[in-house]
Amino acid sequence: MRDILNSMKNIAIVGFSPDASKSSNIVGNYLIDQGFNVYPVYPKEGEIRGHKIYQRLTDIKDMIDTVVMFRKGEFALTLLEEVKTVGAKNFWLQLGIINDEAKQKAEEFGINFIQDACIMIEHKKEK
């Protein structure tokens, strides 16, 4: 986990809600405040704090090293295919999100995988 946290620069957050009361918004804004390049992925168009919202991970043209998922666990396998397609080396499922099948496949693909952990809490521990 420490290696992932220390290597992150370009982070796509799948499920980054524009609603300030949502966990994904709180975590996404924390990562922006920490100086990371954050790419919100959400079904609605627009911007969050000046960052363009993308409808799909594969719509992002920049190189993404870490994908953080704020969706139900059953979506992890589908998203893992996109993570692989964009060449991200880290796939992080937020606190309460678990998919052991996605974990196994990520390992087969050589993608670092974290599940059931909050990236904001873990980053604060490392500071």
From TrEMBL:
Coiled-coil segments: none
Domain annotation CoA-binding: ranges: 4-97
Pfam families: CoA_binding_2
InterPro entries in UniProt: CoA-bd (IPR003781), NAD(P)-bd_dom_sf (IPR036291)
Gene3D superfamilies xrefs: NAD(P)-binding Rossmann-like Domain (3.40.50.720)
Name the UniProt record assigns to this protein: CoA-binding domain-containing protein
Organism listed in the record: Campylobacter hyointestinalis subsp. hyointestinalis
Organism ancestry: Bacteria, Pseudomonadati, Campylobacterota, Epsilonproteobacteria, Campylobacterales
